[in-house]
Write a structure and sequence with these properties.
Number of domains of chain A: 1
CATH architecture of chain A: Orthogonal Bundle
Largest interface: A-B, 40 and 29 residues
Oligomer: heterodimer
Distance between the termini of chain B: 54 Å
Helix content of chain B: 25-40%
Strand content of chain A: 5-15%
Largest sheet of chain B: none
CATH class of chain B: Mainly Alpha
Distance between the termini of chain A: 7 Å
CATH architecture of chain B: Orthogonal Bundle
CATH topology of chain A: Cytochrome Bc1 Complex, Chain D, domain 2
CATH class of chain A: Mainly Alpha
Shape of chain A: globular
Number of helices of chain B: 6
Chain lengths: 265, 147
């Protein structure tokens, strides 16, 4: 099952970013009561797959994550559980409030980066690579503990400039097609792009299982797909621009329930 | 000097461009139209139909049209049926070349423009979405969509 939008993708080799004029377009933000998750547009079968933990392929990543949670790692020889105990209690609602401000780096960190901070500083282990099986497993397991919880971005003034930067990126035309995220996800939400209903781009379900990927992937992987569809330069995983976009998208989806691990076409 | 620069550029292009890269043809906008063919010759409507339908050329992301066999069509913009009755050939040409000159807020990409774009991916950088010849073929096809 591949989508028309995605079939347009071609591999774009990484290259230097063009310093170019930024054209900011004004898209109207979606009124809070008109927001809907991408889940609402799923076909019956895909919905059923997400709803049933025994059929949801994302649950395999969650199970892997649960194993990793109690596995000792790094030269500190400690597991996540050694410090955090039962994730059902200690990690409840945590993913729903990331990205959060990290005082040490003076920037927001997303949940994957937060997990890696514990890997490096608490376990004295090597950081896990973005999109690696272990990182997706741990972030899916931590994410599951927020399933059903409302997205609750921290009320933290230090996040504001980063959220604003994310909003600006979201509304900036870019790429050869010269489109902004908001042209599709705000102005044309619910319309059909080559036959595919354009969702509102809410980050409620990540990491999630995407049928087209036939694997679990992070929100940044999804953003990369859209950037390539726009024929724009994508960013390296973990780049500040992605975290800023995530910060804005989570704020835009504030109050919406988390679905991790969701299923999408 | 000018000659050297051209030679240098030609070299760079040979080295970096996968499909041969063409310099953009100059064109003259008169009112809301480009009256003359970009290539100096009329396009081929049959080839133009294939260009409009081809997925990589992106038209059907946003548009639908009189294409009963195409499963994946968009509805972000007017149906292309009747475009040839609503618009002159010159108007259709400007619409494809640079729709933003007709409506700066449009979401329709400029198919024959390389400047004023931001963060274009390396694969596509410096190239128009369609060549002058493809634009002419597509225009020739669109003018046949009379109803």
């Amino acid at each position: 099952m591949t989508s028309g939008w995605a079939r347009l993708r071609r591999l774009a080799p990484a290259a230097a970013v063009l310093a170019a004029m930024a054209i900011v377009t004004a898209s109207a933000e979606i009124p809070l009561n008109e927001r809907r998750s991408g889940y609402a547009d799923l076909g019956r079968e895909t919905k059923a797959m997400q709803d049933d933990d025994t059929a949801n392929p994302g649950m395999l990543a969650v199970l892997d994550g649960e194993t990793l949670w109690s596995a000792k790692a790094g030269s500190a020889g400690r597991s996540c559980a050694d410090c955090h105990g039962d994730a059902r209690a200690s990690m409840k609602g945590v993913s729903a409030r990331y990205p959060a401000f990290d005082a040490a780096s003076g920037r927001p960190v997303n949940i994957e980066q937060r997990i890696n901070l514990c890997r490096e500083e608490r376990q004295q282990a090597k950081p896990l690579a973005y999109e690696s099986r272990d990182m997706l497993a741990l972030s899916a397991f931590v994410g599951l503990q927020s399933r059903g919880q409302p997205i609750a971005p921290p009320d933290d003034a230090r996040l504001e400039p980063f959220r604003d930067a994310g909003r600006e990126t979201y509304n900036r035309r870019q790429g050869q097609l010269n489109l902004a995220c908001g042209h599709c996800h705000d102005d044309n939400r619910g319309q059909r792009l080559a036959g595919i209903v354009i969702p509102q781009a809410h980050p409620t379900g990540y990491p999630l299982y995407r049928l087209e990927w036939q694997s679990v992937g992070s929100l940044q992987r999804r953003l990369r797909n859209c950037l390539i569809g726009m024929r724009a330069e994508h960013y390296a995983y973990g780049a500040p621009e992605y975290v800023e976009l995530e910060t804005y998208l989570m704020w835009r989806a504030r109050g919406m329930p988390m679905e991790t691990p969701a299923v999408r076409p | 000097m000018k000659f050297m620069l051209t030679a240098l550029l030609a070299n760079v292009l040979v080295m970096t461009a996968a499909p041969a890269q063409e310099a953009l043809q100059r064109y003259e906008v008169v009112g809301d139209a480009i009256p003359s063919s970009l290539t100096g010759v009329p396009g081929d409507a049959e080839r133009g139909r294939a260009i409009v339908l081809k997925r990589e050329n992106t038209c059907l992301l946003c548009h639908s049209g009189p294409f009963p066999d195409e499963r994946f069509q968009g509805d972000l913009s007017p149906n292309l049926a009747g475009a040839g009755a609503r618009w002159s050939e010159g108007q259709l040409r400007l619409r494809l070349v640079d729709a933003s000159r007709l409506n700066p807020a449009t979401i329709m990409p400029s198919y024959y423009r390389v400047d004023g774009l931001t963060r274009v991916g390396a694969t596509w950088r410096g190239k128009p979405i369609l060549t002058a010849e493809q634009i002419e073929d597509a225009v020739a096809y669109l003018t046949t969509l009379r109803q």
